Queue: 2 jobs
Job 1
Amino acid sequence: MLLVAGSSAAQARQAAVSTMSETDLVDFERQPEGVKRLIRDALALTRRKLTYIFGSSNPARGGMDCSGTIYYLLGQGGVRFNELPRQSDEMCAWVQAKSRFYRTRTATSLSHPEFANLQPGDLVFWSGTYSAGRRVLPVTHVMIYLGRSRSTGKPVVFGASDGRRYEGQKRTGVSLFDFVMPKPGAKAAIYGYGRIPGLVAASSRPSSSRGGFFNRLFGGG
C-alpha cells in the first residue's frame, strides 16, 4: 500500500513521503516485540508529512535530517538510549562498540553474503553521500531496514532524505525508501549495518529469520 503526501513539484523541500501499514511487511508479526514497536513508531512518523531539514532532530520544526530522524525515533522508544549519539558516524561507532556490526566491504549487490545477517530493525550506514569533513568513521547517512514489502517483495528502509526514491518516485522528508545498492562508480557506498544496542536480546530473534536478508530474499537454505 503506497500513500503519498505532499508534492515534490510544489516547492523546494516540501514533504513528499510514502508510508505503509506494518501488515504490508513480510513476516512483521514474527519479529520480536522491540522490533515491532520500532517499526510501528517509524511508520507513524512517515504519516506526519515531515520534510527534510538538515540539522533538525525535532519534528516540531516540520522536518528532520537522516540521523536526526533516527535519533528522535530511538529517543522516543521504550528502550532508554542514554548513550545514543546524534551524528550518523557516531551512531555507527556506538553500534560497533555496544552491539553487533557487519561491515560490507566488498558487496556489489544485496545478494552478496555480506548482507546475510541483515534483519528488520537494523541500522544501515552509508559513506560518501556528501562531503562531511573529518568524522569518527567515514559514515554520512543512516536509515533503518524494515524488511520486505509484501506487495513487491522488495526491501524497504525508513529514514529521511531529500531525493532518494520509493517505488520509482523521488521522496523528500521522513519516509519509506527503496533499499538499493549505489550505482557502480558512485561516491556513495553502503558502509555496513548492525543491531541497535539493547533493542532485542539475541535469543529473541525468530529462529526462521536467522538465515538473514540474503537467504530470505534470494531463496537460500
Job 2
Amino acid sequence: MEIRTTTDEDFDVFVDTVHTAFGLFPGTPVEGGGLWWSALEADRCLLARTQDGRPVGTAASYAFELTLPGAVLAPAAGVTAVGVLPSHRRQGVLSALMRHQLHDLRRCGEFLSVLLASEAGIYGRFGYGPATYTSRLTVQRHKAAPAVPRARGAVADPADGSGTGTVEVLPRAECGDIIEEVYDRYRRAQPGALSRPRRWWALRAGRPPISPEPRYVAVHRDEDGVPDGYASYAVGEFAPSRTLTVDETIAVDDAVFTALARFVLGHDLVAQVVFQHVPPGHPLRWQLADFRAGEVSGDTDGLWVRLLDVPRALTARGWFTDGELVLDVRDPFLGEHGRYALTVRDHKAECVPTDRAPDLSLDVRDLGAIYLGGTVPSTLVRAGHIRAHSPGAAAVADALFGAERCPLCVHWF
C-alpha cells in the first residue's frame, strides 16, 4: 500500500474516495459554494492506494488556530475526511493513514492535532482524547419566563428593557461580514474554539451559519452600535409544536448571550426553542424562573485533542495556579514513552524531561482530554485511566489543568 499527499490533479479522486467510504455522493458544485469539502487543501490531504493503484482510504487536515486556556492562540491541525472503503476495512489501512499523518504533522512542526469524532470508539487508540463537551437545551416557551437576578450589581435583564444594546434580525445573506468579524472576536477568548479561515466563509463550506442554507441571524449591537454577538436560527414548519432551532449563539460576554437568548425565547408562533452547542455549566438554565424549563439532551463529546509534542504543548497554554507535577506519559500508538517535570509559576509553565518518580501516569489520550480544562483529571483517576501515585496528586492536577472558562468548540469540520 502507498500513502502520499494529493495534488490538484488527483484531488477529485480523493473527494470521490472519501464520499464512497461514507456511503455519500459528492454533490455538484454550485455558484456561491456550500459544499463541505470545498475548503479542503490538497497539500494537506492523504490518499492510500493499493499496489495496483486503487484508492482505498483518505485522511486530511486543516490549518486552524486553537484557543488555549489563557487566550493563547496556537496552531492546530484539524483532522477530517478520514475514511476507508468498506471493502478494505480492518486491514490496517486506517492505522497506516493515521500514523503517516501524525508523522507528517510533526515534520511540519505542529504540536497539536484535533478532530470531531464520527464514532467515539475509533480515535482513542490513535492518541486522541475528548476535551470539550456540548449538549442541547430545549426550552418550552410557555415556561420561558426569566428569573430575576438576585445578586447586587448583576447584569441587567434585557427582557425588561433595562439592558444595554439592541438586537436586529437580518437574513444570513446580508450579514456575512458581521458574523465573520464577531466570530473571530469571540473565538480569540474562548478556550477550545477554532478559527474559521477566510476561505471557509468565501466558499461557504461547512454548516450554518457558514453554509448557504437559509437562516435568520439575530445580531446584537452594543450601546455604541458595534456588533458583539449573534444567534443563527431557523423556524420549523407550522405545527402544534413548532420549533425554533438556534445553530449557534456567539457572544463576547454573558450579558450579550442573555440578550440573544431572551430575544429568541420571545419569538411569536413558536412552541419551543432549541439551543445547540450549550457547554456544561452554562448559566442559561439558572436564568429561567422555572429551572426545569430548560431540558438538557444530546450530551456528547465535542473536540478531541492529541498532543504531538508534550513539552511544547504544555508550555504553550496559560495556567492559573502555581504547582508542580511529574507526568509519566505513554503513547502506545507511536511507541513512545516520556517522563516530564511540569512546573507552573506566575501563569507560565516549564516542562522538561526527568527521571524523578511520577505523580501521575497516563496515556497521551488522557493528557489530550485534560489539556483544555474540560475534563477533570481526578475523574479519569476514578475511572481507572490515570494512575495517581500519591493521595494529593489528583487534586494538584485538578487545580493546575483548570481553565478560566469551560472550553467549547462550535465549529464543524
